Amino acid sequence: MSWQETTITQLRLLIGDDNPSSYDFTDEQLSKFIAIGTIHVDTELAKWTTVTLGPYAVDVLNSVTITPDFTTNGAPKGFAYLVVLKAACLIANSEVRRLSKTSGWKIKDRGSEIDTTAVITTAKDTASNFCNNYEEARRLFEQGSYSASLAIFSSYRSATGDIIFDTQGWR
Fold first, then answer.
1. Is 144 left (phi over 0), alpha (psi -120 to 50) or beta?
2. For 2-13, what is each residue's pLDDT tens digit?
3. Which one in 71, 95, 103, 112 has a CA-CA gap of 20 to 30 Å to 84?
């Protein structure tokens, strides 16, 4: 199983983009977020390359590739979790920027009111939650708890109902 097969599904479930009939993001877009997340995590954990089995070479310009594949090279599963959490953080912050162009304003006119500030507040809170979860999981990883984010990704099933990951690891 490659990193795309496992991490895209994890990321979709984490960000709530799990309805195949109306995905918000394509697999290609999510792959790019995961690849960029890999760059961030690999850089932030540079002192732990003997543990993470990095550094990782990432290409997002031609075809999205990550070499070596961190889901099959023996790296701790916690590294993959960190990459997915970082990708979720990046997506959530991207959504805040996107929404800020069309939301976050309040108009009052002769007793009528339109208020879209709650949209931005909710998006900011979501981004903050994803990013804080990533930072906490990274801190625990650095302290030696390589599966610290297991609770976030514990047992889940694919769209066909097959268990992809549980407490026994990748399937």
1. left
2. 899 889 999 999
3. 103
